[in-house]
Amino acid sequence: MRSQEPPVTAVQQEARRRCWRRLPLALLVLAVVLAGLLALAVGVPTLWRYSGESLRHYADPETHFRHGSIGSEVSGLPVRLWRVLPDLFPDVFDGQHYEAFGFLYVPGDEASRGDLPIGVGTREVRGVEIAWFNCALCHVGTVRESPDATPRQIAGMPSNNLDLYAFIGFLLEIADDPRLAPDSVLAAMDEQGQSLGMIERQVWRYAVLPRVREGLLETRATLAPLLAEQPPWGPGRVDTFNPYKLLQFDMDMDELAEAERIGTSDFPAIFHQRPRQGMDLHWDGNNASLQERNLSAAIGAGVTEESVDHAGIERVADWLLDLAPPPSPYRPDPDAVAAGKPLYMRHCADCHGYQQGERYVFEGGRLGQVVPNEQLGVDPARLDSYTETLQRYQLTLFEDDERYRFRHFRKTDGYANLPLDGLWLRAPYLHNGAVPTLHDLLLPPAERPQAFVRGLDVLDEEKGGFMAPDCTPGEPLTEGFCFDTSQPGNGRQGHAYGTELTAQERSDLLDYLLTF
């Protein structure tokens, strides 16, 4: 007999009492008490330093997108610790800073002098500057038109560089490493010239760094069993909802059905949000509200109901409404493009809209609607990872705030038909990134590459997408990540549209797609 899902009232009760298991938090009351005791010797101003909160503001909206806070810092690491981790763990960073995990830096920034990567916002909380993720972490990538070209950073495209699985795994692994002990960390700060006053030093030794370790150990106990069951995500990918279940809602691994435990998919592009209002959003189309989608993504980045910075999130959302992708650099044969467009309009436009010169047209009878996966036939893992139980938990978020409480999440039976604006920047293709190029996507599934390198940013001028040479799983690579489509959640099957065309027709269709 099938077990029944818990009633809404039980979910609400569980949500109200849930424990926020997070990566290192801001200072606890202990820090304030200790600072207060020590302040007796030096006066009240020092105590004032360990109270209140300050936030950095950026006038330019794109700078705010790249570096501003969305309220996730409660899940983060102290900035001083971000700066010394590469020195404490040289075996992991191998002479680099956070580029070792695919983080990007704004041109001109110097990681060696303490500048933080793109996608990491900061906020001072009780005298300690904390840093953690914002929207740009997953939505700024790089492109090169040739191997010797300088990488071009593009805001709004998927991050094709970031290996979030490796970075999170690193943090969980070092939770009990002796190099994270206060003596070691403080010595590394001294070596870098990060001076601490007498009171600050004691606060860091007895409050900040112990809390960092405690938070990492708690998160490891919660998250590590899930990550151990999943194939490594690889660069440009994330499991959106399963960590959400464990960290946000305090669910246990044994509560997750085997079919829902792998939900890894590609980071999406986030261009042109205004025309997407009312479309089915997320890969599985589980929400048609831009506001809820944005807030849900922020929670996935580490925001809590208590820490959320609605103004910061909404400022980014407003900027994204009309953010356009740069035009395609491809210059295919005009005659081939002219031959390919009618094929696209007949086979693809109803679901995906179409390109008209340099303008993308958001029109199509089924654009932005969910197609059942019985029809699509693509890998079901991402679809199965979102469950009705999770939906009921989500509907308890912000339930006392009529403006922000979630109302629109739903369980679907398929994947949403997405607009294809900026298609040239979105490789690899399908929701799980299992097909490296547009050329391969037009092949029958059995003929698509079984294993290929992802994480590269040089454009493939012939096939559309990034260079993605074949690879052998388990063998070392000089660069990139060997993506194995035989692994759970990585399937290359389905979306067979256009595969029945002749070779010439597929070539013409590809040339038209290269203009997107």
Automatic annotation (TrEMBL):
Coiled coil segments of this chain: none
Signal peptide, first to last residue: none
Cytochrome c domain sequence ranges: 335-516
Gene3D superfamilies: Cytochrome c-like domain
Pfam family, one: RoxA-like_Cyt-c
Keyword set, alphabetical order: Heme, Iron, Membrane, Metal-binding, Transmembrane, Transmembrane helix
Keyword Metal-binding: yes
MF terms in GO: cytochrome-c peroxidase activity; electron transfer activity; heme binding; metal ion binding
Membrane-crossing segments per the record: 25-48
Descriptive protein name: Cytochrome c domain-containing protein
Organism: Halomonas salipaludis
